[in-house]
Amino acid sequence: MKNIARFLIRIYPASWRARYGEEFEALLEDSASGWPAIFDLLKGAIQMQLSAPLFPKLALILSVAGLGAGLAISFMVTPRYVSRAGMAFEGSASSADFREFLMQCENEVLSRASLKGVIQDPRLDLYPEERAGTPLEDVIETMRRSIMIRLDGHGSARLSFHIDFSYRDPVKAQLTVQALMVRFEGANLHLPAPVNLSVVDPPSPPAKAVFPDRWIFMAIGFGAGSVAALLIAIFRRPPPPMPLPAQAA
Amino acid sequence: MSDPTLLVLSSLAEGDKHGYAMMQDIETFAGIRLGPGTLYGAITRLEEHGWIRPVGAKSRRQPYTITPSGRHHLRQELATLRQIVKTGLSRVKHA
Asked: Is the pTM of this model over 0.80?
């Protein structure tokens, strides 16, 4: 416990340690240690750091720098656009049957052959850079992760769902969702007893990128800057010891 | 009265002490065990105000003394506290 307490002296401001460090350490040696003392040390260190003259300036500079860096990085990362379309199975089938239809169609649409066809469709020509440098299997997996098929609602005569696809090109994202819908219609025809599959919402044209969210990037940058300021304040080497104030005779 | 700075000033009003002696004295007269961080936070603030100062040769167990302005400040604070205690007791009595 004494060792923890001694270690915690290091998180006091360097200038404070230079002035009081030795006598503070002597006090820790003399006094009883325990968790209350450790928490008291932590509380004292945080209060001292926040009141140290250097800390606010350092925190402000690094936080603003972090915010700027976050904003700059958000402009450097490749944006992602999401297109969404809604479809629905309708007919005289039970809810469980509709779910089974959806699962079968989904398996077919997301199969290797199906996605390979979409990727290599000359009209779409998806992931050209990735295809040049990585195996097609990996590209197919990447695409699979970019497709989201979610149930919207189901009842005794209807099951609706939506298809999302995220991609760096908004036009291609929309065209790809269109292609996936066509494949869903094809998969429906392969079911043992095809049901009516209708389009509820046509593929949406992505208006703006869903990634990166510049506010999140800036917030992360700001937070990282603040943490960096705290760490620098804690681990900065102390300046040479200051002399004690003049003693009264 | 649990303001650590007042406790430290009250302790030093009796005589010069180093940190651990102050801690023990405060526990004796006020029944409050100040943690090391709280004690040295108070010492730092008091020294910044010029209400206490180190005395003797620099040592690991550095004694501190109360300054005349510190004694004046302590008197003022205690007078305010006495007024609060007096008013509070009288109101409790008549409630």
From this structure: no
